[in-house]
Design a protein that fits this description.
Length: 276
Amino acid sequence: MAQPLVEVFGLPFNNLTPSAVQARNLKLCPFQPAGTKCTKVSVSDPLGVCSVADGNSEAITCPTRFKEGWMIAKHAAEFFFPQGAKYEILPEIRIKGGDGSSAGNIDVVLAQVDSAGRMIDFGSVEIQAVYISGNVRDPFEFFMADPARNGPLGWTGAKYPRPDYLSSSRKRLAPQMIMKGGIFKSWGKKQAIVLHKGFYDTLPALEEMPEANKAEADIAWLIYDLIPHATENRLVLTLLKTLYTDFGTALATITTREAGSIDDFAAVLNAKLRKL
């Protein structure tokens, strides 16, 4: 089968330039400060896959991939704060519920500060990468054994890896909106949710959701795609669109599934009753 890996340690699998070879040898993450090593899954043996194939496109599977140039912070700040506001980027901030128990970590908090560095306002940025079904470790290790030879061979082993959008929305996006998003809503603070286009396209209800006025919205959905660079063999994170919504409508849209057939469900019940 085709190669399921799109980007490995930040660059396309078919990029065999010296910089790509160095990144793979040193296990570097180009979306963090220079020289930072990838730590996905393991510090000593990282799974350096940033994105995987999704038909003729790709799906971002590592949240750090969205930190390219910190453009997500720039775009979120344009929603949170007045034009020209100074802000600081604060990753992985723990948040607690009213009973003192942990509600998890906010992926990124942007804190608006004054000239003396005192906080004026803040907003949250949640990054929604996609879960993978199947086995990505085996094709990754096969590729890394000899990228030049094995890259074009793709992967023919078991459990071919694919993006799992249903699990991503049910197990990650919806719970995060309920737990952490609800707290920020109660505080009257704005939120930005970062998605890859492939994930967004599996949530058709979002496209149909009434869009709020930017000044009155609670949430900005920042939709990105990976676009080939004009002259280099690499992909560039690019903002495609921004959707502004209120929290209640967005939460109801994400957590409500289309109903199946009531007749089918009734048939199951009747079959159970006949066995009693």
